[in-house]
Specification:
Serine Threonine Protein Phosphatase 5, Tetratricopeptide repeat; 2 domains; two-stranded antiparallel ribbon; 2 strands; 70% helix; globular; disordered C terminus; Cell cycle-regulated histone H1-binding protein; TPR-like_helical_dom_sf
């Protein structure tokens, strides 16, 4: 479980306008970890495990991203800045997704949809993320529901390429639901490749132990 900062006005005032920088910094760190994941999966599939040696570095990056986003969340809740809060919700959802905490990711991404502001991230992207989370949770019905929402969204804005991508995900989720597909037997990565047994089966950047360790050190 990720550690939440106690919310109070004094702490929020202390953070101040650094919160804007925190969001941009966290965004860069998360994007960097996402790129690492894609490279790692490709190298593992090609039997080149050298990237695993850098895993701890990226775990630290996610820990930093989480902690600065918690600071930003506190500040923007005090300011009631929904535009910035939507960024925080989405990025923390991304961290949960990277950490294989899909139910927590759904909660954060759902918060995004409550904010009618698409400057930072469009609702179509959020629908896809939620659909992916439900897919990995084994809830094919909810996965298809959100992939369908994504198709409707992209059709509405006239983005045929994105609409087609969502249709493919929708067809995949429906096929697996009909076949009684079980997640524990097979896993599909976000790039559509199967992750096999052994090391390839579960490549997760785990930041939980780092956050717990930091919490203990602060209490000393």
């Amino acid at each position: 479980m990720h550690k939440r900062i106690d919310e109070n006005d004094q702490q929020a005032h202390t953070i101040g306008y650094r919160a804007y920088i925190y969001i941009e910094y966290a965004h860069c760190l998360i994007r960097n970890v996402n790129n690492y994941f894609q490279t790692l999966l490709l190298q593992l599939n090609a039997h080149q495990p050298s990237m695993l040696q850098k895993k701890e570095i990226y775990e630290e990056d996610l820990e930093i991203a989480w902690n600065v986003l918690e600071q930003a969340r506190l500040f923007f809740k005090m300011k009631n800045d929904k535009h910035q809060l939507k960024k925080v919700y989405f990025l923390q959802g991304e961290i949960y997704l990277l950490n294989d905490q899909h139910a927590d990711a759904v909660r954060e991404f759902s918060e995004c949809l409550l904010v009618e502001d698409e400057q930072f991230v469009c609702d179509g992207t959020v629908y896809k993320r939620i659909g992916d989370c439900y897919f990995f949770l084994g809830d094919r019905m909810m996965a298809t529901t959100f992939y369908e929402k994504g198709v409707v969204y992209y059709n509405g804005v006239g983005n045929a390429r994105k609409s087609r991508e969502m249709e493919l995900l929708l067809m995949s989720a429906r096929d697996r639901e009909e076949m009684g597909f079980r997640e524990e037997e097979h896993k599909i990565g976000e790039d559509g490749h199967k992750i096999g047994e052994g090391e390839n089966e579960r490549v997760v950047v785990d930041v939980n132990h780092l956050i717990r360790k930091k919490s203990v050190e602060k209490g000393k």
